[in-house]
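Training component of the fellowship. As part of building independent skills, the fellow (R.M.) carried out the full modelling exercise for a liganded target. The chosen ligand was 6-O-phosphono-beta-D-glucopyranose. The inputs are recorded below so that the supervisory panel can assess the work.
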Amino acid sequence: MACSSSCPSPDAAALNCKFGCPGVRVESGKGGLPKVCLCVDGSVAEVYLHGACITSWKPVGAATDLLFVRPDNDFKPPKPISGGIPHCFPQFGPGKIQQVVLWPTKLNTHITVQNTDSKPFEFSTALHSYFRAAISGVQVKGLQGCRFLTKDKVPLKGCERRDSITFTGFYDCLYFNAPNSLQLDNGLGTTIGIHNHGWTDAVLWSPMDQIASWREFVCVENAVLDPVSLCPCGTWSAEQILCLTDYPSQHVSSLRTSKSCSSLSC
Ligand SMILES: O=P(O)(O)OC[C@H]1O[C@@H](O)[C@H](O)[C@@H](O)[C@@H]1O
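Fellow's submitted model of the complex:
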């Protein structure tokens, strides 16, 4: 994936003139929608301005894109993009609340919510992250001991006993007071660390045959499930940091000294 592939649409070209800089380029993406390509030290990420959805993350040395965008997308606003990392606040949609920072081995997503009204308001929110995966080999670790509630027709609740969660059928489950670090083995040979500051809960989703491409992804989401109440002028923020936990050793030494990153606020 290169940051200079397609011919920019007029919108993208204008945006690129205004905001493009080394490591940040605006291009015309699918459906003619502008997307921002971030590059740093051989790592690339793409963010569609529609919904501020991060549709691609390929750290240097990764064999494939680590995010998954569903093939059933038509990239036609106002419909949100299904896949990648869309934020839900309080539903999918654009908003000047997200900063995306690409480091050589990490992808940070920082969400800030400000109450600019004179009354308090409540919200819940999530990063509905779709990871590329081979579902039969996926393992999620870190949720042992958390209280859970499934979203089945007859919901089940309890305390997660498993050290490692695997997916053998439909799975849609909320985890409360989740820890700040989860590990996702994507079943394709890569383990991704999913770290956060400020996200209190997590959601795991594998839709089975509700979605044709279900074998190719898993959703591991940072979320805030119980509504947050923000007083006037109040601010809430949370950060997600994705990184490769088994980063190929040949890349580590050259990047250890790198302090560069590319960032986008949208
Ligand atoms: O909107 P999308 O991308 O199709 O995802 C919907 C799913 O998103 C998951 O986060 C929920 O836990 C599921 O209940 C829901 O069906």
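The panel noted the following from the submitted structure. The domain at 76-265 is CATH 2.70.98.10 (Beta-galactosidase; Chain A, domain 5). Residues 44 and 58 are 5 Å apart (CA to CA).
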